């Protein structure tokens, strides 16, 4: 059976999801889980974009051993050098160089002729090949490129040393029948096509990303590029879990396998959802909460008689059953630690000690602690980053239908000093945020405020996710608590800590005008 390579771009294209802003620790955590999931290639970031990106790609390349780690690069020597800096320590240094090929991009973005595009692409691949063991070239917007020209580009970059050639549907425009034909055309018409792996990278603007990726496989693609939970630019990328499970379940049709450990899928999905603050829709295929729920009486009756009547994927296949194991207030430190390890965390004893304390506090208020709760607790622990500039000491909010909502808050600063303030607002959260703003002394714009419960039940944890801008710095923050207002305060403080950490760590100009694809 032919194997399809799975190239995960959750940490690069997925991180381009509007409002998503992962810190270094979070990226590393996701990379380790992707390794456990069995992805062949992890695209860890865009090293030329910022010092922070370079550092996290480097750390991931130095840490991950069972997946090949790659970084994105424009067809520029400076970008390729930045990638080399980040990836040279990895087990199999691999670079992903891209250049647009479509007439729209050539004319309006690159201002290049066809000849200049080929020359630039070839030079970049040659330069990269002098350093990297594996070079991937992507013809950005391939699916809107004239086929004969696309074939010329593919032939030229393979001659220059490209090991993988990716033909992305950058804007999510193509239809399954067309992408299948496009891959067949390239396979048949490009004389050296057998010297490289062809890859598909589909976006979901018309809801076709999974179907198109699978059609590309039918057309001859041997690698698919995708993200967990289909996160990504605009409407997102092709969903890793959907493609991997479809290839497995419909093996009779495709006759292809992947190296994905399917029962790690749910765990990976929950981790990415929690760290990115992106809730998985209940009806999302494979990983949504309703993916295995049968509501109608006829369906329930059928499933009770024989599951295959209405269930083509079992929950166990994707690790949903394992996810239901719960801890409670009698669970000890050992069981807790085992759970953390089984969830893929590589936490230090110090971190386990701290999270265990939060776990015990939570277990006093909540009967069953699920994996989702633990993801939230761990995310809180990891989210503060290296330095906690502010932490919440006390909080009191007064609300009444005929009163002005008022908040009184005490924070501890880095030096352990107490800072107390009070403020009002038109609602409880506004009163709270006005007060926090007074303490932090920095004006902010709240772009997004979202609240969700980690599980069902009245005692469920509230998880608040905020996206805010402080001057020119965008930040997200997350906070979890039994109480929605306390979770809201924690999310705000987390966003502030992240901005301050970012400013400290980078202490560098924001990379201007970098246009990511
Ligand atoms: O969508 C796209 O074209 C990309 C390329 C860099 C592969 O993300
Ligand atoms: Zn993309």
Overall description:
With 517 residues, this protein is an alpha/beta fold. It contains 17 helices and 16 strands. The chain folds into 4 domains: 2-276, Alpha-Beta Barrel (TIM Barrel); 292-318, no CATH class; 325-383; 390-505, Alpha-isopropylmalate synthase LeuA, regulatory domain (Double Stranded RNA Binding Domain, 2-Layer Sandwich). The strands form 4 sheets. The protein has an 8-stranded parallel barrel with strand order 2-3-4-5-6-7-8-9, surrounded by 8 helices. It has helices at residues 24-37, 51-63, 77-87, 103-110, 114-129, 147-160, 176-189, 209-219, 240-249, 251-254, 265-276, 297-305, 333-342, 349-365, 371-383, 428-440, 484-506; strands spanning 2-3, 5-8, 41-43, 68-74, 94-100, 134-140, 164-169, 197-202, 223-226, 256-257, 390-398, 406-413, 418-424, 444-453, 462-470, 473-481. α6 (147-160) crosses α7. Helix content is 41%, strand content 19%. β14 and β15 (462-470) form a beta hairpin. The radius of gyration is 24 Å and the shape is globular. Zinc ion (ZN) binds at residues 13, 168, 170, 201, 203, 517.
Summarize the structure.
With 517 residues, the chain is an alpha/beta fold. The chain has helices spanning 24-37, 51-63, 77-87, 103-110, 114-129, 147-160, 176-189, 209-219, 240-249, 251-254, 265-276, 297-305, 333-342, 349-365, 371-383, 428-440, 484-506; strands at 2-3, 5-8, 41-43, 68-74, 94-100, 134-140, 164-169, 197-202, 223-226, 256-257, 390-398, 406-413, 418-424, 444-453, 462-470, 473-481.
Question: What does the secondary structure layout of this molecule look like, with pairings?
Answer:
Blueprint: E1 2-3, E2 5-8, H1 24-37, E3 41-43, H2 51-63, E4 68-74, H3 77-87, E5 94-100, H4 103-110, H5 114-129, E6 134-140, H6 147-160, E7 164-169, H7 176-189, E8 197-202, H8 209-219, E9 223-226, H9 240-249, H10 251-254, E10 256-257, H11 265-276, H12 297-305, H13 333-342, H14 349-365, H15 371-383, E11 390-398, E12 406-413, E13 418-424, H16 428-440, E14 444-453, E15 462-470, E16 473-481, H17 484-506
Parallel strand pairs: 1-10, 2-3, 2-9, 3-4, 4-5, 5-6, 6-7, 7-8, 8-9
Antiparallel strand pairs: 11-12, 12-13, 14-15, 15-16
Helix pairs in contact: 1-2, 1-11, 2-3, 5-6, 6-7, 7-8, 8-9, 11-15, 14-15, 16-17
């Amino acid at each position: 059976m032919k194997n399809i390579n799975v190239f995960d771009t959750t940490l690069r294209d997925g991180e381009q999801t509007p409002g998503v802003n992962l810190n270094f620790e979070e990226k590393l955590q996701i990379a380790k889980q992707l390794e456990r999931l069995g992805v062949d290639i992890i695209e860890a970031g865009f090293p030329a974009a910022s010092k922070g990106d370079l550092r996290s790609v480097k750390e991931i390349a130095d840490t991950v051993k069972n997946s090949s780690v790659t970084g994105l690069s424009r067809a520029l020597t400076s970008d390729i050098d930045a990638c080399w800096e980040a990836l040279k320590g990895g087990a199999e240094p691999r670079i992903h160089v891209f250049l647009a090929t479509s007439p729209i991009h050539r004319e309006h973005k690159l201002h290049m002729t066809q000849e200049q595009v080929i020359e630039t692409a070839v030079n970049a691949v040659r330069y990269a090949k002098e350093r990297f063991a594996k070079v991937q070239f992507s013809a950005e917007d391939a699916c809107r490129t004239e086929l004969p020209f696309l074939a010329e580009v593919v032939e030229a970059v393979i001659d220059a040393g490209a090991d993988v050639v990716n033909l992305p549907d950058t804007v999510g425009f193509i239809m399954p029948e067309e992408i299948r034909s496009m891959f067949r055309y390239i396979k048949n018409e490009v004389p050296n096509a057998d010297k490289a792996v062809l890859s598909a990278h589909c976006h979901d603007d018309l809801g076709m990303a999974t179907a198109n990726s699978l059609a590309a496989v039918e057309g001859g693609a041997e690698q698919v590029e995708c993200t967990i939970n289909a996160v990504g630019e605009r409407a997102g990328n092709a969903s890793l879990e959907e493609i991997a499970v479809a290839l497995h379940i419909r093996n009779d049709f495709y006759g292809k396998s992947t190296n994905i450990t399917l029962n790690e899928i749910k765990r990976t999905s929950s981790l990415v959802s929690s760290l990115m603050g992106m809730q998985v829709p209940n009806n999302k295929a494979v990983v949504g909460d309703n993916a295995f729920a049968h509501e109608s009486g006829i369906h329930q009756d059928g499933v009770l008689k024989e599951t295959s009547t209405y269930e083509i994927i079992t929950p166990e296949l994707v690790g949903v059953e394992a996810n239901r194991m719960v801890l409670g207030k009698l669970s000890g430190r050992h069981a807790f630690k085992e759970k953390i390890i089984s969830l893929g965390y590589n936490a230090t004893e110090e971190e386990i000690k701290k999270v265990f304390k939060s776990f015990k506090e939570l277990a006093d208020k909540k009967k069953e602690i699920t994996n989702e709760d633990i993801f939230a607790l761990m995310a809180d622990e990891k989210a503060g980053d290296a330095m906690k500039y502010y932490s919440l000491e006390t909080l009191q909010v007064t609300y009444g239908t005929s009163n002005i909502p008022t908040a009184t808050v005490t924070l501890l600063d880095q030096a352990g000093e107490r800072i107390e303030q009070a403020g009002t607002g038109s609602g409880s959260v506004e009163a709270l945020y006005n007060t926090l703003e007074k303490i932090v002394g920095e004006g902010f714009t709240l772009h997004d405020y979202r609240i969700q419960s980690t599980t069902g039940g009245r005692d469920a944890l509230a998880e608040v996710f905020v996206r805010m801008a402080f001057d020119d710095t965008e930040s997200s923050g997350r906070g979890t608590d039994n109480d929605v207002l306390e979770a809201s305060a924690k999310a705000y403080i987390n966003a502030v800590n992240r901005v301050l950490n970012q400013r400290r760590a980078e202490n560098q100009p924001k990379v201007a005008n970098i246009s990511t694809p």
